[in-house]
Specification:
This is DNA-binding protein. InterPro entries: YjbR, YjbR-like_sf, YjbR/MT2646/Rv2570-like. It comes from Vagococcus elongatus. The protein is an alpha+beta fold. It is built from four helices and six strands, in the order H-E-E-E-E-H-E-E-H-H. Helix 1 crosses helix 3. It is globular and about 40 Å long. The termini are far apart.
Length: 135
Amino acid sequence: MKHKEKDSCAILEDLKESLSEWPGANVYYRKDWECDYFNVTGKFFCLSMDNPLHGPIVTIKGLPADNELLREQYEFVIPGYHVNKTHWNSIKLSESTFSLEELRALLKHSYELVVAGLSKKVRQELSDREVGREK
């Protein structure tokens, strides 16, 4: 079943709520880019926007081989909009058949890839936040 365009806002809100579980993750509207900017310590791991050609999209980081595979398997997954097309995919939400759980998993993987690229010190600080939250 395809997501309806009217459901895209609800999907995005659910994805935003997931961030509360991930240390250092937050989202804000970035006016200069006209998108919701999902980031961890200032480095983005997802962008969501209303694309003039494709409607609502989310752009998520992934491993190059995984990105290619997703594009081959799903017509609603396209090379990342306005980002490095090797490392990023955009998902057309109004055509997507991904469940909310699948979208969350892709978003979480994107977050983890960005965190892995942070300095050891910053990763440790994020890990300490997570441990503090579990107590």
